[in-house]
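A quick word before the example. In earlier lectures we treated sequence and structure as two separate objects. From today on, think of them as two lines of the same record. Here is M14 family metallopeptidase written that way.
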Amino acid sequence: MRSSPSTRAVRVAAGLAIPLVLVLSTLPALAAPTPTPSPVAPDRLPSAEQNGVALLRIVVPSQDGVDKLNELGVDLAEYKKPVDGGLEVHAVLSPAEADALRAQGFDVRGAISDQSDYAANQAERRSALNSAEAAEGETDTLTPLRAEWFTSTDDQRFLSVEVKSSATDAETVLTATWDRGRGTAPDSGGTTTMSRFTDAGQYMYHRFNAPITLEAVPSKVTVTSSKGGKITVPVTKWLGERRKPPSRHYVSDFVDHYMDPTELTGRIVKLAKQFPRIAQVVDLPYKTNGYRRAAQAQFGTASASTLYVTSKAFGHEGGNDVSVALAAPAAPSAPLTVSVTGKDVTVGLGGDAAGAANSTAAQVVAALNGDAAASALLTASTYRGNAGAGVVAAAPATRLTDNLKAPATVSRDPYQMKALRIGKTRDGSKTGVYLYCQEHAREWVTPLVCLETAERLLRNYAFDGATRKLVDGLDIFVLPTVNPDGAHYSMYDFNMQRKNMTNHCPAATGDPANRNSWGVDLNRNFSVGSLFDGYSGASSSCTSGTYAGPAELSEPEARNEAWLTHQFPNIKFAMNTHSYGGYFMWPPGAYKAAGRELLPRVDFGTENYFWDASGHILSAVQDWRGTGIWPGRTGPVPDVLYSAAGNSADEHWFNRGIIGWDFEVGADLYNPETKQFDAVGFQPDFSEGHEEAMEFSSGQIAILEVAQAFSQDRRSPRSDLKVTGRTAGSTTFTFTIDEPANLYYTLDGSRPTLASPKLVSSGMREGTQQLTVNRTTEVRWFTVDIAGNTERDYRPTGHNNNYRKARVDVRKA
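And the structure line, produced from the sequence above:
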């Protein structure tokens, strides 16, 4: 059993947030650069032509099967659950890839989601954006639905108002103001912001989440909109009775569609401008590679006679204007030639005595790369390292393309990542909390969680006392999207993109059919417990879904994460939000497969702190719609999922001592008809995605409450020694502590210090260590909690002796 939990309000602090969106090492269905052949098909098309790519179930008999899939480079989701017959995992597969796995004996089953779901999400998103654009700049019309006052059984009076705006976008904010009765000032009764109510992803109206308490019965209420609308209506008496509402009113629900990083960043910039006294934008120092690629074209159908060309300039900077033609021999025995006019390149294929083309792919590649004018525009390569001995066929002029499909509103330049800093006092003196989302591009719900949390904090500050205490007492950093380039690519090109867009692949894997496999898994690119240190759960293959990059912290996105924690050393707490599966995890997050050599576990007190804080945080998640995170999906990452080498939570914990958690939003939904839990996938329909954003934003708010309790903790822990067993010649004992704390002890009569033996856990997910002595012993000890409070104010580095002590008697044998 763990030491008894604290009976006071959440007192937590110290560890880290294991951000892992762990995904088994994944070679995304394209040719790997290593000698080991991929079991899956080599050609995966871009999102508009994804040819059936879907998120599928695979059932394996045991963990060995999961490991085998990992070794094969299958693009596994961070999801695993026991089922009849073994373990169910999910993988992103094309039909050819699924067939290849079935041919190897794997039990590949039905889809969690496919391209029809992707298309529906995009259509819904376009509809929401069009509605918002149509309403931009127009004064909205407000329609009153209800305005009533009522009493509860204790005669407390309440106000309830419901108003619908013609502007349906989430940025429309309605404010209600009421008087204290006839003849009084219109705003004498009070004022508050209304909550936006949606159902199944659709805007319904604005309301109070809970009725507002009244001191006097109002005669009228006036509702004004941020879009300019205004209406005044009488307040009538409602005959019904309700239970006493919460002591505070609270507004929520500020997201109504999936958003790309450009939208997300625009929203936090607007928030900082609207609330300059309590918010500011922090520009992160390292710009990303950008949503951009070189332009390419490929010629040929057989590997030996296929070649491809890649522009020197990015597509939007001129690469898309380059064209290449392979012209038939001009005459018998014609030589191989290259000519360039502007950006149009023509290869005159060489011919034999009969006039038939005889230039091989290797010869054409050499000719293009050897021509000064052509090589200034492009680089040519044979197909995936092939020797290129096959004869090349003539082909008409083909314009190179970067294949990117995002609208012009998405910049192709290196991206300026921005975080939103929220707090009344932002000088580093307050406890810092770091909330970051979307390390993995395809997890569309996660940035909405961060954005919703920021909106709640800022919009409730003026009206809600509890929110005001959080903003006044903490220094909060919100980074909605860690992976903006990959997220843009996921939104517009290939929805199952996990990584960023930086292509570190050599020519052997640089052909256009591999474009959906380029990039670095940002949550495997950090410097602690990394692939480069020998830890498991990441890949050195540049086409793997868990590619760790060419070096630790090679990616600007990862360096930005680390920079923020170093630039603001007051950050003591963090939360990395991923999807899906409904997990709640913390460090350590990686081990070496040989002997399962785990990164050092957090100490006894911190582990108990994680568990105790989790109760508060997960209760807040559950309060929204009843979602319960399973105990089996709560705990250190390797205990409940698998190893994730080089993840950001380990980076923050081991390098900075930041207590951090990892949400995997999107818990399985229980189906009462089948009596089974169903997985939701990375991009559920928005009505489900919306609910996930709402409930896990509540969880992020609870993390802020945990941090606030830590910052105010001045109470010392209390402990006792408890004998748990006796035999002739030995006595076994342990300790009980009234809150998460570390305990240092001595058995030799010496004064306990921070260098003394430290109490540990009995084992993974087990209780407190049991100690056994073989002779009567005086045990001396002290405890120190996560906030640094020491039992009895004992000073282990001093000379006072007010430590705890107890005599443990041993009966003679």
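Notice the following. Residues 137 and 628 are 42 Å apart (CA to CA). We will return to this example when we discuss secondary structure assignment.
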